[in-house]
Task: inverse folding
């Protein structure tokens, strides 16, 4: 058995990124993700990487853009208002098909909001916060070990598809501590670079851009992007279920709320109610077909979120009957309790 270390979620994410080969990190301080910048400022120096605290989130994401152009494994992290500022750069990364890992440790919003945990950036991550027809591959871990595993996977998928991968977790996931085991240090610290701008000595020059002015060229570029996103929809679905196969009542949740719902399912089963859990791990692509199959077997469905109801729209879209979908949510940093979920399901107050 691998040795386990007791760390907080932000440190788990940082160390996993380093072991996945990240050697270029650019960020700007914002709570509740500051442990990432602090940890990276020490560890990147130890492994021969580059740590730079940028003057803003806009600068951070554009520094990632520059590193990604060379085929380097690059990452930036922030919390909700900071991710909003990065949207232009993310759109440009998508337009140029550059691999990058972007982490959002969500806090309450809108606006500056507060520093309490939240899941209110689901729309921004899954539907696209910037301009243009682009998608992010979005992982939503529910445990600190999943933070490690999916951060490691995020760098692999970013390089495989030449796209941006987002790790979406709330502030509570970043601050809480659990024992985790880390993978071995990757030997490869850059992506396959037969497309990258690495100097053109002894070869033809390359061009990477997102500006296409000739008639029809941009449309062909967009069609190629959509073809790639279609392949990702087919190949990269991840989800978890708990006692869902025979569930009369199906709870759905992502991230930390998945943990709350798992406990609620256990309590409801103890009360004689056949409850189960469906938890998407990839928020895009959403495991819609799998959920549709489960929804047909369930009498009632509840979507539990730390927002005003964002994923519930996807749940209603894929459910066999949207009229049997209910919503349980808290906003502005509020966290649903297990007892609140159980009471909502049973109708008892």
Result:
């Amino acid at each position: 058995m691998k040795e386990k270390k007791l760390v907080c979620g932000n440190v788990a994410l940082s160390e996993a990124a380093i072991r996945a080969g990240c050697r270029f990190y650019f960020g700007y301080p914002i709570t509740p993700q500051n442990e990432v910048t602090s940890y990276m400022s020490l560890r990147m120096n130890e492994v021969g990487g580059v740590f730079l605290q940028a003057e803003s989130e806009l600068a951070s994401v554009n520094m990632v853009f520059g590193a990604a152009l060379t085929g380097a494994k690059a990452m930036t992290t922030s919390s909700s208002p900071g991710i909003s500022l990065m949207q232009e750069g993310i759109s440009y990364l998508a337009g140029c098909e550059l691999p990058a890992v972007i982490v959002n440790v969500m806090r309450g919003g809108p606006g500056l909001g507060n520093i309490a945990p939240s899941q209110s950036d689901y729309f921004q991550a899954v539907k696209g916060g910037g301009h243009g027809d682009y998608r992010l591959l979005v992982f939503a871990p529910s445990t600190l070990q999943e933070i490690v595993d999916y951060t490691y996977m995020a760098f692999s998928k970013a390089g495989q598809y030449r796209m941006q991968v987002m790790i979406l977790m709330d502030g509570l996931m970043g601050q809480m501590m659990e024992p985790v085991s880390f993978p071995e240090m990757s030997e490869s610290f850059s992506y396959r670079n037969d497309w990258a701008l690495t100097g053109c000595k002894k070869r033809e020059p390359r061009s990477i851009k997102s500006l296409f002015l000739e008639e029809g060229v941009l449309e062909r570029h967009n069609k190629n992007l959509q073809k790639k996103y279609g392949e990702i929809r087919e190949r990269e679905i991840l989800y978890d279920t708990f006692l869902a196969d025979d569930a009369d009542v199906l709870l759905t949740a992502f991230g930390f709320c998945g943990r709350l719902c798992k406990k609620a399912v256990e309590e409801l089963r103890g009360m004689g109610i056949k409850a189960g859990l469906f938890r998407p791990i990839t928020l895009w692509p959403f495991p819609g077909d799998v959920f549709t199959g489960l929804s047909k077997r369930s009498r009632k469905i509840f979507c539990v979120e730390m927002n005003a109801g964002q994923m519930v729209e996807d749940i209603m879209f894929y459910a066999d009957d949207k009229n049997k979908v209910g919503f349980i949510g808290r906003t502005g940093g509020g966290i649903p309790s297990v007892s609140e979920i159980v009471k909502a399901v049973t109708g008892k107050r």
